[in-house]
Amino acid sequence: MLRKILIGLCMALLLLQGIAFAQTPKKGGTLVFGRGGDSVGLDPAYETDGNSFMICDNLYEALVFYKDESTALEPGLATSWTISPDGLTYTFKLRQGVKFHDGSPFTADAVVFSIGRMMKDRKLKFFGKGWEIPKQERPPEYWVSMEMDNTVDAIEAVDEYTVVFKLKRVEAPFLANLGMDFADIISPSAFMKDPAGFVRRPVGTGPFRFVNWIKDDRIVLEANPDYWDKTAGPYLARLIFRAIPENAVRFLELKGGNIHICQFPNPADIPMAKKDPNLQIFTQPGMNIGYLGYNHKKELWKNKALRKAVAHAVNRKAIVDNIYQGMGEVAKNCIPPTMWGYNTDVPGYEYNPELAKKLLAEAGYPEGKGLPELTLWSMPVPRPYNPEGLKVGVAMIGDLSKIGITARITSYDWGTYLKRQRQQPQDMDMFQLGWTGDNGDPDNFLAVLFDGMASEAIRTQWHDEAYHRLMLEGKQTIDQAKRAEIYKKAQQLMYDEVPVVPIAHSMVMWPGSKKIKNFKLHPTGSVRMRSVWLE
Q1: pTM of the full structure
Q2: pLDDT, tens digit, 9 for 90 and up, residues 436-462
Q3: What are residue 126's phi and psi, to 5 degrees?
Q4: Which of 137, 170, 355, 469 has the most C-beta neighbours closer than 10 Å?
């Protein structure tokens, strides 16, 4: 009996050793990532779209990192930090011995440069000679929409590896905000060589460095041989991000072995992927929202009854059932239900065509009479919060026609769509957009997306003084329980005023080759390849 036990233990040990050996990361290889569209640009301070940020995720780093599969913070380019008792001074101790891809050293001055260049009134102090930062050619949209000019007063490098942020006001999400892509640290020397060209020739400290970019085709990165963290990769020799706009084509490329990961497949392709012995499914509950917005700069949409009529006319459940196909849930609020501060008491807009018709008459357009043909802008690319924007748009205009509203779909390439939509042009009545949260804080949804009084960069441009006051109160309150109550009030106010129509929160499911090891989806939508390897 004892002999059998000993033999069993030895076999178990050998099996465990085999598993450990099999899971030892392997260096080398090229991973090809299939995505729905190309990047807009690669300067993290000025981009807003996920296709740009997924490249930035691998080229650049920030002072603080989000942990794997979480928005909890951990040290990044800063090894530690302290916050003054009054909440207005943040002091960061920086990691030493880090180099940018161009060989220049990472120092406190680089932090002052990278963050300070986004400031409208630059109160900056370098420890060394520093740089004369050129005037911005376009607004840093994240910085502006998050009211960072009203938050950050001054940035100072007090020595080579210590940087201090002085704030104008208490900002509860400030530390979490510094982990976002817009706060990535870039090489000042590379930027100053060609400020306008940096957007296409990026230089950071990340695990991969830029090789080339063939517009609307591919972006190629290679492993950074001088990466500072030798304990966690990079293991891949190369990364290729291919732009393949058609979901079905992208999935066929995966099935054929031409790509390793298929981002945003058609929902109908997921069951096929599960049956394929060569594929696996990467899954993450979506920290996201897809919504229908109105052009609040047009007089037409100041009519709340009209906004409500549209909200009750759109059959959101049918959209989720037929287009998301099990990969989403109907949204009641504009933050995901997994996020703290979510208001479970908000009922959401029921699908009720008869009520919609009454509201349309109340708005002054009985059966749609007197209402011009409306334009609905539909997204040309799949996003985490909307698998097929054009199909969703077709469903929406079909629903609107049932109550007497005539609408047509308009679309552009993704870069043009984002640029023109932010301008709220008169030829846009309604638009599809959405968001994947950056840092796990309700402020990152409710303030950044919907408080039009905070900034012209807010894409919805909804102006409501009561809502604006709630957003300011939420930022400046430290106690999380009190902040949660503030954000619950804000969600109720949004339901009452209908600035947008929440459509869906999606489950993120990406099929990939079984050769991929240690790839993890992140709640923020980041695509982090540092620790990934190929079997």
Answers
A1: 0.82
A2: 999 999 999 999 999 999 999 899 999
A3: -90, 155
A4: 355
